[in-house]
Amino acid sequence: MKLLKRTGAALLAVLAALALTIGAAQAQSTWDRIQETGKLRMGVTQAPPWYSKNPATGEWESGLIVSIGKSMAEELGVELEMFEVTWATAIAALQADKIDMMFLDATPKRAMVVDYPKQPLLYISLAVLADDELPVSSWEDLNKPEVTVGVPQATSMDAFLTRTIPNADIQRFPDNGAAIAAFQSGRVDAVSLFHPPLLAARQKLGRGQLVIPTPAFSSPSSIAVRREDDKTFRDWVDHTIFYYYETGRTQRWYEEFLSEFGLDPKASPVIQRELLFNN
């Protein structure tokens, strides 16, 4: 009986130590994990000019957010690892500790479950790529049952269209590429995304009119991080993107990608808001 009690006590002690170890591992902050592993994990999805995968190699080689992620990893002295997600699954990937950060609009709903730095990363306007024969100058022009509009589901773009053109036939797709493919195949009359990806789509497809409908909807975009007690990583991201923005590096990386993609940066709206007043 005494042996049984001693064995039971020892087992309880082992289980308690194991629970403490697991709890400590779970409580490890993003900042400490990056320092320990030497890796910064970023979510990516095929959406030029933010992310662009080389189909020949399968590597994420270009795009504004890819450039920012690589620069951040270099600042930290660590390796950048990129994990493919969708706009709809990015929040879950952050919460499950599969990625450390993801480029996502800082909507109030998202801010309920993840953290954002105070400094926006950039500013973009919502646009549509529509059939050439479709009259589009305002959102109200699209607010008709006979007009089909494609949009990536569970995004801020989806939420805006749901509020603004409730009478339209809104078709929701897993990501930017699927929404654009629906327009290309004629399944929808127009596709609505923030302006930069539609520049690339218009150039690739060689058809369609690119319009920013009125009243224009512009939005700050940022980088989402996991919500945790230790705010070191969030605050470092805040400082870093502020530095990139204020020194013009964010705008320059954006223009470099547009040029590499065969687009004229001067024909695209800027993403640094202050530059709008200099044009």
Key traits:
279 residues, 11 strands
3D architecture notes:
The radius of gyration is 22 Å and the shape is globular. The protein contains 9 helices and 11 strands. It has helices at about 1-25, 30-35, 65-75, 90-95, 155-165, 175-185, 195-205, 230-245, 250-260, and strands at about 40-45, 50-55, 60, 80-85, 100-105, 120-130, 150, 170-175, 190-195, 210, 220-225. Strand 2 (about 50-55) and strand 3 form a beta hairpin. The chain is α/β, with parallel strands linked by helices and about 280 residues long. The strands form 3 sheets. Strands 5, 6, 7, 8, 9, 10 and 11 form a 7-stranded mixed beta sheet that branches. It has a two-stranded parallel sheet with strand order 1-4. The chain has a two-stranded antiparallel sheet with strand order 2-3. It is about 40% helix and about 20% strand.
